[in-house]
Amino acid sequence: MDFLTNQNILLYLAAYLIAGIPFGYLLAKQFAGVDIKEAGSGNIGATNVLRVVKEKDPKLAKKLGAITLFLDAIKGALVILVAMMLDAPESVLWTLAVLAVVGHCFSAFLFFEGGKGVATGFGVLLIMMPIPALIAIVVWLIAAKGLKISSLSSLIGLVAFIIASYLIYPEVPGIGSHAPIWIIAFIIFYKHIPNIVRLFKKEEGKV
């Protein structure tokens, strides 16, 4: 029974389950009547919501895409903020960050399928390392505006975060290791493998 009342365990479960809520899928289904898992790239993130819903209603697509982006970013961060209020140690906070990305990418509500992890990843990293995350977001936005390829822009932003994190935090406060960052980066990279293949084949779509 101690397992069910342990604060850290409850936080870990909350991080995984809340981050696993497929907001993009639910919003597109409810307000546009489309199943984004069966259309476009099949991804549940904001980019595919925008791409698929745009075919029916461009204005609605922008709204749903923006809401999806916000909810996917905030859902992982919320549990970390609660944990901070409970004075959880840095090791627990970083574990929550990793579990939030895992929850989004391998959602229990979608038979362990999910999104690419970019919005959720940047959401938790913005809480854990604000300055590197802001640098990465600026790089991401510039790349997106210039390239208009969501996947490539996201990966460029991720690389920018990793570089900035090492420059600003040679040793991560509280844990002394960049391991959680590399785990998050690996998951996001892994989920982007199909996109990377399409990029090399010059078949990746623009937004």
UniProtKB/TrEMBL annotation:
Quaternary state and interactors: Probably interacts with PlsX.
Family membership: Belongs to the PlsY family.
Keywords from the UniProt entry: Acyltransferase, Cell membrane, Lipid biosynthesis, Lipid metabolism, Membrane, Phospholipid biosynthesis, Phospholipid metabolism, Transferase, Transmembrane, Transmembrane helix
Enzyme Commission number, as recorded: 2.3.1.275
Protein transport listed as a keyword: no
Listed name of the protein: Glycerol-3-phosphate acyltransferase
Transmembrane parts of this sequence: 9-28, 64-86, 93-112, 118-142, 149-169, 175-193
Function comment: Catalyzes the transfer of an acyl group from acyl-phosphate (acyl-PO(4)) to glycerol-3-phosphate (G3P) to form lysophosphatidic acid (LPA). This enzyme utilizes acyl-phosphate as fatty acyl donor, but not acyl-CoA or acyl-ACP.
